[in-house]
Amino acid sequence: MAKRKALITGITGQDGSYLAEYLLGLGYEVHGVVRRVALEDQKHRMWRLKGCLGQIELHCGSLESYPSLYQIMVDVKPDECYHLAAQSFVAYSFEDEFTTLNTNINGTHYVLSAAKMACPECRIYFAASSEMFGKVEEVPQKETTRFHPRSAYGISKCAGFDLTRNYREAYGMYASSGILFNHESPRRGYEFVTRKISSTAARIKLGMADKLYLGNLEAKRDWGHSREYVKAMHLMIQQDTPDDYVIGTGETHSVKEFVDIAFGELGLDPGEYVEIDRKFFRPAEVDLLVADTTKAERELNWRYDIPFEDLVMEMVRSDYEYLKKN
Ligand code: GDD
Description:
By secondary structure, this protein is α/β, with parallel strands linked by helices. The chain folds into 2 domains: about 5-185 and about 225-245, Rossmann fold (3-Layer(aba) Sandwich); about 190-220 and about 250-290 and about 305-325, Alpha-Beta Complex (UDP-galactose 4-epimerase, domain 1). Helices cover about 45% and strands about 15% of the residues. It has helices spanning about 15-25, 35-40, 40-45, 65-75, 90-95, 95-120, 150-170, 195-205, 225-235, 255-265, 270-275, 295-300, 310-325, and strands at about 5-10, 30-35, 55-60, 80-85, 125-130, 175-180, 185, 210-215, 220, 225, 245, 255, 275. The strands form 4 sheets. A 7-stranded parallel β-sheet has the order 3-2-1-4-5-6-11, with helices on both faces. Strands 7-10 form a two-stranded parallel ribbon. A two-stranded parallel sheet has the order 8-13. Helix 7 links the parallel strand 5 (about 125-130) and strand 6 (about 175-180). Helix 6 packs parallel to helix 7 (about 150-170). The longest helix is centred in the first third of the chain and has 22 residues, at about 95-120. The chain is globular. The N and C termini lie far apart (about 45 Å). Guanosine-5'-diphosphate-alpha-D-mannose binds near residues 214, 221 and 282.
């Protein structure tokens, strides 16, 4: 029997790399969309894929170019498409609203439209986000909670979510959105707060840094492990009918708690090293996120059981070991 084909946008990112490995393990033929800059600088831009580069097929394209996405869809004719690529750093979306809105909204529209034209039977997963809940209107947040985004990034994800639903309703396409809460791992980008904390704590321990400068320590997030969340993405588009699902841990922790566990793991007192820098505060903050995953548990049979402390410790140990060796 022919292998099922999956196409991943954003394959070089944290989720894309875990998803590629997971789908290969399930016997899929895995294709990825990458920008030319990534192909030209594989050492720096494809480090997360080093374990599976020989087993996947990469195609040059960009979220800014409808023709490139359309051509890839025509060439690959995927059975499943995971649309993960985006300008995903919330803080940056305040500095450049225009790029964030253009790339994220148009990019999602292009992916949906290209699939509709080239391979209408393809099942599509859209990476929506808990940032859509923003100034939360209920706690915990579930699929029916009203959106109140607080950044251009959150607004772009709301638009992508609506576009995805509309392709489902208007054109009968199989298109589902995963409303994923924060998810981390040793492969997280350094600009996100968890990796910034784990990597800087490791650098301080090794005498390579003196201080960690952070913004709002009181913000609370529902932090899970990316490796587990990609399984939910896959499960979502194996269902009989497309739908939207919230994915999270059901627990919330403050940035400060993350700091305390990370520094504690290395035997460091955060009071000595952590300083507040106003430049890391956001013009509009999302204060509290926590997921109600009842629907995903019931309908997808998806479960999450990694304790928060284990996630923090895995990230810190990984950074510490890597820096010590290199
Ligand atoms: N990045 C960063 N840097 N965040 C800081 C800092 C800092 O120095 N200091 C405090 N924070 C706070 C932010 O204000 C925010 O409340 C929280 O830490 C988490 O910030 P990020 O790690 O940048 O993630 P995010 O919650 O804004 O967004 C992430 O999760 C979303 C899902 O809810 C991203 O992965 C998004 O792409 C994703 O959709």
